[in-house]
Write a structure and sequence with these properties.
- By secondary structure, this protein is mainly alpha-helical.
- It has a domain of 262 residues: Cytochrome P450 (Cytochrome p450).
- It contains 14 helices and seven strands.
- The strands form three sheets. The protein has a three-stranded antiparallel beta sheet with strand order 1-7-6. A two-stranded antiparallel ribbon has the order 2-5.
- Strand 3 and strand 4 form a beta hairpin.
- Helix 9 packs across helix 11.
- The chain is globular and about 60 Å long.
- The structure holds protoporphyrin IX containing FE.
- It is found in: Membrane.
Length: 381
């Protein structure tokens, strides 16, 4: 399944093919923000970011947005939120010893069954609609859902896929992709608001590369090195997944430590990315540290980063959605900085972290009032 996700959905070529789908969702993100700005309403950044990410993932998988008429998107978003809070409890249960783990699972059984049957209901409906579309139109396969449904019907397929496999894959993608990207967008926007020098420099970069009449697009990102550096620095200081888990199949040595077989190890990426041994001024938000320096070669920098910069985990179990994550975060931040002045209550955004959350979240979600920078709305072309 992971092979399939990488080749059909998250690999570089697949991402290139689905660029148009995301461009539409970015336009919609901009127009929603513009709408609230015109009404002078305050906006919770994470809510708007979540819609952007969630709709884009939905659209990429199913070749359409989750339908707004039936508020499928809202239901999926609600379920993702619920899964996060449930996941937190299960994570705690999983790192406790085995007997407690069993108690943990049974304590949350009702909640688990409830969420999973609701997910099942929404996804089953979408599956049925897609299958009907496929049967009626006899069209060439276009999206990942079609390909999976084809594989599901094919008795001779390389790997036998069932409807339950498809549904659980979608839940994995929604849950793994939505919260991570949404929280990153929120943390990074808060850092930018708190650092006027960074905001000014980023705006100058966007205005000079993209201009002031066309809306920023993901294809602009490679030409915006300072924006890329800001995103990386945000992920270093506020990694949405602060810990990753690894279970050792065999006994092995790590440095001078002997790790017994079947040990579950918690890797604290949050602490590694703030370790003063590897980072200068580790608590400071300094995007400049990620700008390619003239002193060291690109190769040295990449090797250095692999060892100490791990917001997407690492190795075979590392995040398969890293490239897409960079795209979501980069474009969302780009749109907000290019198009709006963001006003907050008070001088600075409160950067406290919420206690006990599975995903590293803000204790006080970022709320702003937006003021458009120009009177004429930006266009995509
Ligand atoms: C800023 C955004 C994101 C961050 C920081 C992030 C971070 C992570 C991390 C730390 C892991 C665990 C890796 C490990 O154990 O080594 C992970 C796993 C995963 N991520 Fe992401 N992620 C992001 C976006 C996405 C997106 C957009 C998708 C897809 C839509 C995605 C799909 C997945 C999947 C499927 C896994 C599980 C991989 C496995 O268990 O083999 N992620 N992510």
């Amino acid at each position: 399944m992971k092979k399939l996700i990488t080749s059909k959905l998250l690999g570089p070529q697949a991402l290139e093919r689905s660029q148009g789908v995301r461009a539409k969702e970015v336009e919609r993100f901009y127009s929603n923000l513009l709408d609230t700005a015109m009404k002078k309403e305050s906006v919770e950044i994470s809510e708007e970011a979540m819609k952007l990410v969630n709709n884009s993932i939905c659209h990429m998988i199913m070749g359409r947005s989750c339908s707004r008429e039936n508020s499928e998107a809202e239901r999926v978003r609600g379920l993702v939120k619920k899964t996060d809070s449930l996941g937190k409890k299960l994570f705690l249960a999983a790192i406790l010893r085995k007997p407690l783990k069993k108690i943990g699972i049974s304590l949350f059984k009702k909640e688990l069954t409830d969420v999973s049957s609701k997910f099942d209901e929404v996804l089953e409906k979408i599956l049925v609609e897609n299958k009907e579309k496929l049967d009626q139109e006899h069209q060439q396969d276009t999206d990942m859902m079609d390909k999976l449904l084809e594989a599901c019907r094919d008795e001779n397929a390389d790997y036998k896929i069932t409807r339950d496999h498809i549904k659980s894959l979608f839940v994995d993608l929604f849950v793994a992709g939505t919260d991570t990207s949404t929280h990153s967008i929120q943390w990074i926007m808060a850092e930018i608001i708190n650092n006027s020098y960074i905001l000014k420099r980023l705006r100058e970069e966007i205005d000079s590369v993209v201009g002031k009449t066309r809306l920023i697009q993901e294809t602009d990102l490679p030409n915006l090195p300072y924006l890329q550096a800001i995103v990386k620095e945000g992920l270093r200081l506020h990694p949405p997944v602060p810990f990753v888990l690894r279970t050792f199949e065999e006994r092995c040595m790590i440095g001078e430590f002997c790790i017994p077989e079947k040990t579950t190890l918690l890797v604290n990426g949050y602490a590694m990315m703030r370790d003063p041994e590897y980072w200068d001024d580790p608590q400071e938000f300094k995007p400049e540290r990620f700008l390619t320096s003239s002193r060291s070669s690109k190769k040295d920098e990449i090797r250095d980063e692999v060892l100490k910069f791990i917001p997407f985990g690492s190795g075979r179990r590392g995040c398969p959605g890293a490239n897409l994550g960079y795209v979501f975060v980069g474009t969302a931040i780009g749109v907000m900085v290019q198009c709006f002045d963001l006003k907050i209550k008070g001088d600075k955004v409160n950067m406290n972290e919420a206690a006990g959350a599975m995903t590293l979240s803000m204790a006080h979600p970022l709320k702003c009032t937006l003021v458009p920078r120009t009177l004429i709305p930006l266009t995509s072309i």
